[in-house]
Specification:
Blueprint (H helix, E strand, L loop, with lengths): L6 H30 L5 H9 L3 H8 L9 H7 L3 H9 L5 H6 L9 H17 L2 H14 L1 E6 L15 E5 L5 H12 L3 E6 L10 H9 L7 H50 L9 E5 L6 E6 L5 E7 L8 H15 L3 E5 L4 H13 L8 E5 L4 H5 L2 H6 L5 H14 L1 H5 L18 H19 L1 E2 L5 H4 L6 H15 L16 H7 L3 E2 L17 H11 L3 H4 L3 H5 L13 H12 L29 E10 L2 E5 L6 E4 L20 E10 L4 E5 L5 H12 L23 H10 L2
Parallel strand pairs: 4-7, 7-8, 9-10, 13-15
Antiparallel strand pairs: 1-2, 1-3, 4-5, 5-6, 11-12, 11-14, 12-13, 14-15
Helix pairs in contact: 3-8, 4-7, 7-11, 8-10, 8-11, 9-11, 10-11, 11-18, 12-27
Length: about 725
């Protein structure tokens, strides 16, 4: 029905549809208001019908909009409307002389009379939809966004120093700079203004000439001169101010839209990050004084064991911590160790590295640094309390860290998207709009991967199109009571899951190894007959045909098109039969942090390092290189060729090689580059990695020297003795 539009394109259409519906509702309200006032005309109705933006509608409505008592209203009440009309009618007459005839008790002198006439003129100009449209267009083209430091606040607002004397075109100002300046203004460190024709002579700028032309004040008579001065005043005092507010609002909206888009793309990349798979995993939530929280889960995510070890200050019980971890690894056959990337992450990683270096056997667990963004939010949530009622809050975070390595999507859907923190200025944007966009991303990601209806949590099922929290709970309850679902059709037996919900959700819910082979694919039940028609054309059993790309590629998709299913659907089914239940996520791989590089102070320009992309913004990508502070690869440093959009080069979760180009410890900034290496950088890499001297251990020395048990490999011997290897 959509001729093959993908979910991203459909979301764009959905956003546009929301805007159009809001605009139509506003159009109807304006028409009703003007009609009630008895002021509707055919020309006005036509103008309202032709308006294509909310701004156009509001411009037309301005003269009819109920308003507080204005200066122009007061002038009319004081009988000054005829004076204004007299000046318009006789340009040769002296306005001051004309004004003398309108002096009354309410209007003490001719000057006051002319000020009243000027207020009437200004209001007329400010309610001219045609003039406002032309002025707004002109301001967008020539306007310059200017930021200045608030006097006396320079030191306190040093983080905004890049904008203390900033000037750039309104039309091209990028989202991240706009939001940074707006934040600086909100925090009281910056002032913002929109400069319009700053070099133009006063009274003769293009905008002022446009206002004068609107009242036809182009002649040389005394009336023309007064009208031009009054129009210029109206521009400076009234129109420029109101239009600047409009344009600054539009600028904010534009910047927020881009920021939300960046957040959404990053969240999608994170949700669709490579899963490590169903392997026994140990999760470590690092901490100094509070200890390192430990959780071991099996291949299905079930919690097997938990513990807390204290290898750092103040207990410094390093040996006991390593022995405890080694015991858990051996007892539960741990294959992966997920280490949270927060405080004490590098110290914990070093502890694990030394443990694994002396661990007996050849098959050692793989350690991976995992983002713990949102883990604390999840730990204290109602969902976590329901999932782990007898588990301490601090240990729930370790479970979450382990599970998000196994399957990032299944675990991250339990956390409010905003808490995952992969956006730019996410707290400065429209929170309702942000939440709506992120919820859509989560739903699309879950649908793209598909959900095993017999193993998925209620939190994951709730994200499937057409399901929601209530139905998800019903599905899990039915599964717990009656056992696994044998077919997709069995879902119709779930309480409150009717035909419409089934139609929406069935294609995203999978049943591997069920009675119906197609239930394990993304082929929707309503298209099963078509799929069987394709299978019959091949003369093969469906189970043998699924995955046989060579045979399926020989088919002509057009031969299977009918009144119900078009060519895009047939192609989708063929693609799914070729790779049934395919996972769109990439294969799993990890970054290796450089030895001896654990703090910003360890960084030097020229170093070549490996890291993981944590966040992609409009101005570049942030990369975790293992020093507790992400470095920035500016968009200009992402590639040797020109890059317009950083997302074209990298995405969150990518493992990349970077070169350190700048280190500013005071401002907590690390500049990185992904451009082609230079000879100097290669020399530096050789110095550090080829002929590097062993780095001293940080903190308490690790127990590999001769100790109470005698010999240089006492810890390794202890492990061998413990596990009999």
């Amino acid at each position: 029905m959509t001729e093959g539009l993908d979910d991203t394109q459909l979301r764009v259409l959905a956003e546009r549809l929301t805007y159009l519906r809001e605009m139509e509702a506003r159009r109807a309200a304006i028409v009703a208001s003007i009609t009630e006032q008895g002021k509707m005309t055919d020309a006005l109705a036509l103008g309202l019908a032709k308006a294509t933006t909310k701004a156009e509608l509001e411009d037309i409505y301005l003269p009819f909009k109920p308003k507080r008592r204005t200066r122009a209203m007061i002038a009319r009440e004081n009988g000054l409307q005829p004076l204004y009309e007299a000046i318009l009618a006789d340009r040769a007459a002296d306005p001051m002389a004309l004004a003398a005839g309108y002096v009354t008790e309410a209007v003490p002198d001719a000057k006051s009379a002319l000020e009243g006439a000027r207020d009437i003129l200004a209001e007329g100009l400010s309610e001219s939809a045609d003039l406002l449209g032309r002025l707004r267009s002109h301001m967008k083209q020539v306007g310059r966004l200017q930021a200045k430091a608030v006097e006396g606040k320079e030191a306190e607002g040093a983080k905004f120093s890049d904008y203390f004397a900033h000037d750039e075109p309104w039309v091209t100002a990028p989202s991240h700079r706009v939001l940074a300046m707006l934040r600086g203004q909100n925090e009281g460190f910056l002032t913002l203004d929109l400069a319009i024709d700053p070099e133009a002579p006063r009274g003769d700028s293009p905008a002022e000439r446009a206002c004068a032309a609107a009242v036809n004040a182009m002649g040389r008579g005394p009336g023309d001169l007064w009208l031009r001065d009054a129009a210029a005043w109206a521009w400076r005092v009234k129109l420029k101010t109101s239009l600047t507010l409009d344009l600054m609002g539009e600028l904010r909206e534009r910047a927020e839209a881009e920021a939300i888009n960046v957040f959404a793309r990053n969240l999608k990349d994170l949700l669709l990050a490579a899963p490590a798979g169903g392997k026994a995993t140990m999760g470590l939530d690092p901490g100094i004084r509070t200890g390192v929280k430990v959780a071991v889960i099996d291949a299905t995510g079930k919690v097997l064991a938990t513990d807390t070890v204290y290898p750092f200050q103040p207990k410094n019980d390093l040996r006991s911590a390593q022995v405890a971890l080694a015991q858990l690894i051996g007892k539960h056959g741990v294959k992966l160790i997920a280490i949270g990337n927060g405080t004490a992450s590098r110290e914990t990683e070093k502890l694990v590295a030394d443990l694994l270096a002396h661990y007996p056997g050849t098959e050692k667990p793989v350690k991976v640094i995992v983002s713990e963004a949102g883990a604390s939010v999840y730990s204290a949530s109602e969902l976590a309390a329901k999932e782990f009622p007898g588990l301490d809050v601090s240990l729930r975070g370790a479970v979450s860290i382990a599970r998000r390595l196994q399957d990032p999507l299944a675990e991250l859907v339990k956390i409010e998207p905003k808490a995952i923190g992969v956006g730019q200025y996410q707290h400065d944007v429209d929170q309702h709009r942000l939440a709506r966009s992120l919820e859509a991303v989560v739903e699309d990601a879950v649908n793209a991967v598909g959900v095993d209806v017999n193993t998925a949590s209620a939190a994951l099922l709730a994200r499937v199109s057409g399901v929601g929290p209530t139905l998800a709970e019903s599905i899990v309850a039915h599964r717990d009571e009656n056992g696994p679902f044998a077919t997709r059709r069995d879902l119709l037996k779930v309480a409150r899951l009717g035909p419409k919900a089934f139609e929406q959700a069935a294609g995203f819910l999978r049943i591997p190894d069920g009675k119906e082979p197609l239930d394990a694919s993304s082929v929707h039940p309503e298209a099963y007959d078509l799929a069987r028609k394709i299978v019959a054309a091949c003369g093969r059993d469906i189970r043998r045909l699924m995955g046989d790309g060579a045979t399926l590629k020989k088919l002509n998709p057009a031969a299977f098109v009918d009144d119900k299913f078009g060519l895009p659907t047939v192609r989708d089914i063929l693609a799914e039969l070729e790779k049934p239940g395919r996972d769109p996520r990439p294969s799993f791989k990890t970054a290796t942090f450089a030895e001896g590089v654990e703090d910003v102070k360890d960084l030097k320009p020229g170093m070549m390092l490996e890291g993981t992309v944590t966040n992609v913004a409009a101005f570049g990508a942030f990369v975790d290189i293992g020093v507790h502070l992400d470095g920035l690869v500016h968009v200009s440093q992402l590639s040797d060729s020109f890059v317009k959009d950083p997302h074209q080069v990298v995405k969150a979760g990518d493992v990349v090689k970077v070169r350190v180009v700048e280190v500013d410890a005071a401002r907590k900034r690390i500049g990185l580059s992904m451009k082609r290496d230079t000879g100097a950088a290669r020399d530096e890499l050789g110095d550090r990695q080829g002929q590097a001297k062993p780095q001293p251990n940080r903190g308490k020395p690790l127990p590999t020297s001769a100790g109470p048990s005698g010999g240089s490999n006492a810890f390794a011997d202890a492990l061998k003795g413990k596990f009999g290897r």
